[in-house]
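Section 5: illustrative case.
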């Protein structure tokens, strides 16, 4: 195939995917499902007839894509909201993932001709959840979750991929006899996870210093700089034995919750890059799948998918959160939000390249499980949220409602600060917040519109404040808002605490 034909085909597939994302809202199905279907239709067994059977290329693209998707997820996560649920999120992303893998393994061993290690491998591959898919569905159906459900689900989904990758690679090592026993995974975990988190935090702080102090001549080089720093973070963490995926997520989380120049434009850039990576990944994986190989295992895959959705995920959630004060309705919703996305399909390519027994069966099962999860769970999430009374009835806050950029100077700058719906600052006038007098709130973004406030302007839930001040005062302003958020609205239910 000539380069011109390759570029033409790629552009058509990308264009169809963008149009599919628009159509997904009207059809009420997740865009990721449509991306996969487009890839399958374009494949060798579809009308497109594109021959693509390059597992190594699909896996490599998937790893790179996952790095940028996780970084963008961390960059958009507000620590002020997440820190109230951080321990619940960590529990779900570690113990919850392990329990899900164990339950699926038990089912695979009892019902199918799988060994214990093969069952654990299957369970590990499908144990992580996809926040991007969940919130894309909720936004398209105008669902805005109450309390701290949204930050909890965001944090769990952003951090549990690292655990799934760790379990998958460890079990593959056991199956091909690179690792002696399951107990050998314990010291590996004790090294990889803390080291990955520590390196991620250090690199995130380093990114803040580099971006603010480098003072590049051309604004267009700042996205190039952050791309290089993201790849460097993953590479360094993986090279020294840490978990690279956890490192890039923590780096994004650290960077996103600090003040740096061009913050708004860089967040938009990485959001767009994450979407490009997601589309490219799903198209590639769709091309990699052969429907003729999926059909024979459809019955088996459907049974595993049902068990995962109705038994394994709910059991792991309820056991992990047994001692929390999270309500029964919220636990039910968290259980059903275990939407599977791109990560399981990427991890499904790992056994293929390693030569694990039944690798083909595992990959096809994983693909069918993901397809079933997106189809059933993705289409029913909005209905379940409203049925359980977890939708607050307000439209989700618009993202990047303020398009102004931060200044290039180091001493002063612009920052966007969001007022969470549970914050005690909601209903207060700006003058009542006790902000330093040198701080100027230039604009408030509300419901896709912006206006210039006065000291008597009343704050609403999900308002975005465009703040101009000295760099140190910006940090102080964020701490004041965080303090109000920690207090919460008097009388409001803190469902997830």
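Designed sequence:
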């Amino acid at each position: 195939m000539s380069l011109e034909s390759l570029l033409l085909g790629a552009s058509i597939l990308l264009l169809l995917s963008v149009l599919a994302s628009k159509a997904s809202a009207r059809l009420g199905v997740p865009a990721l499902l449509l991306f996969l279907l487009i890839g399958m239709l374009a494949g060798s067994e579809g009308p497109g007839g594109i021959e693509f059977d390059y597992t190594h290329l699909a896996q490599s693209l998937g790893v790179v894509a996952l790095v940028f998707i996780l970084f963008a997820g961390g960059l958009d996560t507000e620590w002020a909201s997440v820190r109230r649920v951080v321990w619940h999120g960590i529990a779900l992303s570690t113990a919850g993932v392990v329990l899900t893998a164990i339950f699926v393994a038990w089912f695979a061993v009892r019902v199918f001709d799988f060994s214990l290690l093969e069952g654990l491998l299957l369970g590990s591959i499908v144990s992580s959840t996809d926040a991007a898919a969940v919130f894309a569905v909720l936004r398209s159906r105008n669902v805005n979750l109450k309390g701290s459900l949204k930050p909890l689900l965001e944090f769990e989904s952003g951090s549990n991929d690292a655990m799934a990758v760790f379990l998958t690679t460890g079990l593959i090592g056991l199956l091909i006899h690179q690792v002696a026993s399951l107990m050998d995974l314990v010291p590996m975990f004790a090294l990889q996870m803390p080291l990955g988190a520590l390196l991620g935090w250090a690199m995130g702080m380093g990114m803040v210093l580099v971006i603010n102090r480098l003072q590049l001549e051309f604004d267009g080089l700042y996205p190039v700089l952050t791309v290089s720093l993201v790849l460097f973070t993953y590479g360094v963490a993986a090279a020294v034995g840490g978990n690279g995926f956890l490192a890039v997520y923590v780096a994004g989380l650290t960077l996103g919750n600090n003040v740096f120049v061009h913050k708004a434009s860089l967040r938009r850039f990485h959001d767009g890059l994450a979407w490009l990576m997601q589309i490219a990944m799903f198209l590639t994986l769709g091309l990699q799948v052969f429907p003729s190989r999926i059909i024979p295992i459809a019955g088996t895959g459907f049974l595993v998918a049902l068990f995962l959705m109705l038994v394994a995920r709910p059991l792991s959630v309820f056991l992990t959160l047994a001692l929390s004060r999270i309500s029964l309705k919220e636990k039910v919703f968290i259980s059903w939000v275990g939407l599977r996305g791109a990560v399981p399909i990427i991890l499904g390519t790992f056994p293929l390249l390693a030569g694990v027994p039944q690798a083909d069966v595992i990959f096809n099962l994983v693909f069918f499980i993901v397809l079933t999860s997106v189809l059933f769970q993705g289409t029913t999430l909005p209905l379940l949220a409203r049925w359980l009374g977890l939708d607050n009835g307000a439209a989700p806050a618009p993202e990047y409602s303020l398009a102004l950029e931060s200044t290039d100077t180091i001493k002063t700058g612009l920052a966007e600060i969001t007022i969470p719906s549970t914050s005690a600052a909601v209903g207060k006038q700006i003058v009542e917040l006790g902000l330093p007098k040198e701080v100027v709130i230039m604009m408030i973004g509300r419901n896709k519109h912006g206006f210039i406030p006065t000291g008597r302007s009343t704050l609403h839930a999900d308002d975005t404040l465009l703040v101009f001040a000295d760099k140190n005062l910006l940090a102080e302003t964020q701490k004041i808002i965080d303090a109000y958020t920690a207090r919460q609205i008097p009388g409001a239910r803190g469902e997830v605490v």
